[in-house]
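[step 3/7] inverse_fold.run input=structure_tokens len=124
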């Protein structure tokens, strides 16, 4: 079974940085993608970023482009989301997700697998 474990959330002031980690396991093939989506109270899920294991291609939503960077350490089966220049509107529970297709074929909030979230709170 595919398992995903997100960590690294916390409280940070506006303008600060956090790095989220997603430890994943259970993939029996190389063609998969790992993504992040977030959900703020009273709001719909928002796809944030994605990275494809096959070719390393990435996706960012317009709201985080230029501030967030997704990367992968295949030796550790971990995907990272480096979040810089954080804003209060980035406050949300962040979820790690995965699918068996490349990022170009799936939106992060619609991926096949997802794990428990980690809370990110950005104070003004």
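[step 3/7] decode complete -> sequence:
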């Amino acid at each position: 079974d595919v398992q995903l474990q997100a960590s690294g959330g916390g409280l940070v002031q506006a303008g600060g940085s956090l790095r989220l980690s997603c430890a994943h396991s259970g993939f029996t093939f190389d063609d998969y993608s790992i993504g992040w989506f977030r959900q703020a109270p009273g709001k719909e899920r928002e796809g944030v970023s994605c990275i494809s294991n096959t070719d390393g291609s990435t996706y960012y939503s317009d709201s985080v482009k230029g501030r967030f960077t997704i990367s992968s350490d295949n030796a550790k089966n971990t995907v990272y989301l480096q979040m810089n220049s954080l804003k209060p509107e980035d406050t949300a529970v962040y979820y790690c997700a995965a699918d068996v297709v490349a990022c170009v074929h799936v939106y992060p909030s619609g991926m096949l697998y997802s794990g428990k979230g980690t809370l990110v709170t950005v104070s003004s």
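[step 4/7] annotate
The chain has a mean pLDDT of 95.
The first strand starts at residue 3 and ends at 7.
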